[in-house]
Amino acid sequence: MPPTLASLVHHSALKLTVRAGEDRLDVPVRWAHASELADPVPYMEGGELLLITALKLDAEDPEAMRRYVRRLVGAGVVGLGFAVGVHYEDIPEALVAAAEGEGLPLLEVPRRTPFLAISKAVSAAISAEQYRAVTAGFAAQRELTRQALTAGPEGLLGALAGQVDGWAALYDASGAVVAVAPEWAERRAGRLVADVERLRDRPAPASAVVGGEDRVELHSLGTGRRARAALAVGTAAALGTAERYAVHSAIALLALTTERSGSLHAAEQRIGAAVLRMLLAGECDHARAVAGDLYGDLLDAPFRLILAEAASASAARARMEGAVGAVGGVASVGGVASVEGVAGEGARAAVAGGGREGARASGAGGAAAGVAADVVRAPAAAGGDSGGELLGQLVEVVEAAAARAGEAVLVVPDGERLVVLAVDGGAAVAACGEFAAALETARAAGRDPVSAGGSASASASAVGSVEEEELVVGLSAPAGPIAAAAAYKQAEQALSVARRRGRCLVEHEELAAGSVLPLLGDDAVRAFADSLLRPLREHDATGRGDLVASLRAWLSRHGQWDAAAADLGVHRHTLRYRMRRVEEILGRSLDDPDVRMELWLALKATAAAGE
Question: At what angle do helices 345-352 and 364-377 cross, to 10 degrees?
């Protein structure tokens, strides 16, 4: 306990007598200070016991004493010690009355007690209290460390709650409650999620005090720019010195458990990259041997492969695919053909053959497989630009969801790209979908805040500022270790479609289960269709025939002349003549199935565009 006026009064060597304010002796004393100034207030900080002899005071003037005592109380002085037998044989009644009126404790100091003795007593008591607090703090630190090593964060929170005589809670990077001690505080901890989210958006380390049923201190945990977790400590009153030591020790220990060392994190990423490389190469047994227990049963259960890409890389690939689609015909419809052949030998040769060199040796499919090889060969922390920031947030969301659900997850970042293996139907995949949905909503709110509404704004705050930030995600169908290369191809296809459609996330099942017609709505496909059919439209515009409609009817009837002519209401010889004109104008033979396919898709693309 810090020294109080009561402890000084009971100090046998000081012989102090209480003359006023007996009911306020339990107030702590921060220091004892002697001053004979008529106005010592400018030199007070609050919490002092002021010692005087009234050398420069008119201590017998009631009005002067009322003003003097009132100023002392306003400055935070907790007590007044008056030395008798120096200038006054007794404390003047004017001063006693003023002290009684303002509620200021007034202590009579006998002549044989020097002010220095009182100062020494206060200093000794303060030093003893500080030593006790430091000793208790070291003891608390030892206990918290022992609990952290033997029982993990849950045991540490329990010990901390006992040290502060309150409760403690740990939150993950998404703001969700991870652990609480004691259990009765779980509802109180849950009500602070919004406060934790606001704290998380501030650069770490950060802290805040929240009022309510308890006095709650919030502290962010982590050494990076964004907090990886947060600690809440609830108490009935402000923390003392010993309790403060315990809280600071808990913050340091929890930061060590939530913020892994850079070398350990890099080592885990290298292992994850090696495991992914082996899976894509079809070496499942080797992948399991290297992974060991690090990823649990992730490699034995159906998983999803997630590919995420940041803004700059996405925009560059979209421009490239658009150019290829415009000049290369239907080969890039929906962005699917651009990754054709990644699965099977193409992917395995690309990875096993050392990246792009192996890919080139494996044909068209190897080119995209080479990108996969680069991803797993050179992992690096996502970050830097705005897209990298979103990749970092996606990593936090996925890892936090997996940790809460007790799932294993394999995350391999590579600058502007991210590869994730997560349990099919698990919390990590669901969290990825929720993150993408919130990002889509936030983007919609940014483009049209009137139509987006309040919910979109709330989602925007959950994923951070989305201005000029882009992220696209492709999600494979469920697969096992043997089909990892095929799953990578599926995720690549979904990623390409998401990029071209301006979507945040596309699942491969959407492509497999749906029609191909939605894929024809891309600008590159429409440009190709317009280029291919423009000569026929220009011919029809002269009024010399109806070649486009005739071509559509003939293709829809699979080249059956009588049926197509009947649909058009013309003679079959007329239709034959028109198809010869189509071949002449386009310079292509309708006997070629590839030509018929391209023309049919072009007609479908123009129909989808309403042309």
Answer: 40
